[in-house]
Write a structure and sequence with these properties.
Strand order of the largest sheet: 3-2-1-4-5-6-7
Largest sheet: 7 strands, parallel
Number of strands: 7
Strand content: 15-25%
Radius of gyration: 18 Å
Distance between the termini: 51 Å
């Protein structure tokens, strides 16, 4: 019996990806910080879809967190056939608005944890007939974002990492995909402390539901699509980021974020 392991699975896109996979009869392992939310979601998924579900409450930014997760998998004798690296968050405002530790914790969750989990699980994933890695990037992956600079850079890292890894693993059983959502109806704007009216208006105007993003992400992953941009508006935005001079893009974004 194999499982799909989803990080950041207690809410938002991660929770919706878990639900989408469960609806397709994949067994699920949920990982996030909030034990109560994980337990509630696990009960719902098992009851509604009749699949096996387990969860592990863990703060992935803590030292040794990936080791603890791997130990849990080994003790439970779980086989992972799908790895969804979803856990992550952003911080808005100028770089000096936050302590270096706050930036470091964000970079740890957004970059170091996905790389570490991928590295540790590739040996298991490679032994199976077919397996998948789905990394969650962002439409911010495609350009610099003054006002969310380090977050955007971390998601650019995930995009580049995913594409390179996809090529490295092209002759193995492991398919690698990266999904890049834009504004999504989650609590990311609250955690990122986005309070500027222009930014809030833009988010409201382009918001997708996490369920829609999850459906697009899972469909693309199972088709073996390397790069998945969720939604027409975001696809247009990616195209414009490629076509227009970078200074124009950066100035426009800076105005939105009040920089």
């Amino acid at each position: 019996m194999s499982f799909a392991l989803i990080t950041g699975a207690s809410k938002g896109i991660g929770k919706s990806i878990a639900t989408e996979l469960a609806s397709r009869k994949f067994n699920i392992l949920l990982v996030a910080r909030n034990n109560q939310l994980l337990n509630e979601h696990a009960i719902i998924l098992h009851t509604k879809y009749g699949i096996q579900v387990d969860f592990f409450a863990l703060d992935l930014t803590e030292d040794g967190a990936v080791d603890k997760l791997m130990q849990w998998l080994e003790e439970k004798l779980y086989t992972v056939s799908i790895l969804v690296n979803n856990a992550g968050y952003g911080l808005s405002g100028s770089m000096d608005s936050y302590s270096f530790l706050e930036h470091k914790n964000m970079m740890t969750l957004n970059m170091e944890v996905p790389v570490a989990l991928t590295y540790r699980l590739i040996p298991m994933l490679s032994t199976q007939k077919k397996s998948y890695i789905l990394n969650v990037g962002s439409s911010a992956s495609y350009q610099s974002v003054p006002g969310m600079n380090i977050y955007a850079a971390s998601k650019s890292f995930i995009l580049s990492f995913s594409r390179g890894l996809c090529y490295e693993l092209r002759n193995t059983a492991v398919s690698v995909s990266v999904v890049s959502p834009g504004a999504t109806d989650t609590d990311l704007p609250i955690r990122a402390k986005i309070f500027g009216q222009k930014a809030i208006d833009m988010i409201k105007a382009t918001n997708m539901s996490p369920e829609a993003v999850a459906r697009i992400a899972v469909d693309g992953m199972l088709r073996g699509q390397t790069e998945i941009v969720a939604g027409l508006i975001n696809k247009v935005g990616v195209l414009l980021a490629w076509l227009l001079p970078k200074k124009i893009i950066e100035k426009s974004i800076a105005i939105i974020y009040g920089m």
